[in-house]
Design brief:
Chain lengths: 264, 264
């Protein structure tokens, strides 16, 4: 199936049902107002390392739920099946991408643990609600993401660089953007840096490591947030024998309203 | 040594040095303005369960740090030794209290993992700063704590009831107390309940399950917060073969200012 002429479902269960039936589209814009999550699935032997990596690096790896060993269910969407309900997955072997299937039922074993991780889609809605333009949405592009010169705090065998997403924000709205996202610590929280790409070791904003280049408007300042691609970068650096993740932009749509993760 | 005439150290390193030298006193009032933490130490085999229990129950079990397997060090106080620097410990065997030593150097093995958990001492300072009286401090008593009829979300072999602390708050200051503590999610956050002990299955406020009874002033309302004794109750219910915790009120004094855990 192609994405052309597909009308995004307004409700999470409807979105997941279409993905389960085989539709492959980025999940941005689907079930607006409901939280979408990054997925990382690892064998039990590596699960301690990932859980500790999340505890030690809560800005890039905000853990919204961690499943029981072998379970395919999450409290974030009790009726969902994690093996089938994402539009597209990635399969990693020894840290290398080996496949991008739309269903991982045949790969799921009783030995696996799934990690659901907060995603910046939630705070983009909050930014728009507060009158802060989101250039990647305006330009219908994936957000720009960069490896930085900052290392995450290692956990067991897992280590890797902090990955950030960057959004151009009008200078007079940077404070608003900080305040709005600072109230959402479970979806990456306040920016980790404002203004200077070189301070993070980023040489050229027009050449992101992940995602698309995004154009600046006059007066825009680059604002950097911790990014949920960080655990994928750690998997690539640390090379567990087997892992499953979502494919970029093809997230898990939960039943949890974004407002749950918005502090007063 | 006795506590009589001991002047509490103003700085965390000074407090820990006195405890390490053998002083046994409750740590309340020591190194004011610095975060104190609950301690739970478990064999590696049980560490996954406790880490997941914390992830799933962040209000009663806010994990401030989790050590590498076998390490006696924490990022919360890099010069401290977790085996000696608390004023008193508790040793648990098969869920039963077996000893209350002041040093656990002879019990610490390469197989242990330590969990440092946020403590309501941090938010009591914030309440006082905001003009909310803290009756247990006024009355020089330990706070009242109760087992509730709410179960924590289980994690592996660990399960148990939510334990709450209760503070009487003047009705006109309940909103302030909610707002002040709501900005400190890593030290238990906003109250879990206001006003009705019976809704939590608490029959008689004057008979707490842990700590001391605290007197109400005219117009005070009972306010209940998730409590760091919750993991100890889970250990008692779930009976791991071996565990070390702090003794009640004899906390680990960290180098981290309380303000770090206070959100704007």
């Amino acid at each position: 199936m192609t994405a052309t002429a597909v009308v995004p479902a307004a409700d999470p269960a409807g979105a997941r049902a279409q993905y389960r039936a085989g539709l492959v589209v980025p999940s941005s814009g689907w079930a607006p107002g409901f939280t979408q999550a990054n997925l990382v699935v690892l064998p039990r032997d590596w699960a301690w390392d990932m859980l500790l990596f999340g505890q030690r690096n809560p800005q890039p790896v905000p853990l919204l739920d961690v499943t029981d060993v072998g379970s395919t269910r999450t409290v974030l969407a009790p009726d969902a099946d994690l093996r089938t309900d994402l539009p597209r997955y990635r399969v990693w072997r020894d840290g290398e991408l080996s496949d991008e299937p739309t269903d991982v039922s045949d790969l799921w074993t009783d030995d696996l643990v799934a990690f659901l991780i907060g995603c910046s889609f939630s705070f983009e809605t909050a930014l728009l609600d507060a009158g802060v333009p989101v250039r990647n949405i305006e330009q219908v592009r994936n957000v720009s993401m960069y490896r930085t010169n900052r290392q995450c705090r290692p956990a067991g065998r897992l280590s890797g660089p902090l990955v950030v997403s960057m959004r151009p924000v009008p200078g007079e709205l940077v404070a608003t953007a900080v305040q709005v996202t600072g109230r959402m610590p479970q979806v990456h929280g306040a920016p980790v840096h404002v203004g200077s790409p070189s301070a993070l070791g980023i040489g050229d904003l027009s050449r992101p490591d992940f995602g698309d280049p995004v154009e600046f408007a006059e007066g825009d300042i680059p604002v950097f947030w911790a990014c949920g691609v960080t655990p994928q970068a750690a998997l690539m650096a640390s090379r567990p024998p087997f892992a499953i993740t979502h494919a970029p932009g093809h997230m898990f749509v939960t039943d949890v309203p974004d407002a749950v993760y918005r502090q007063p």
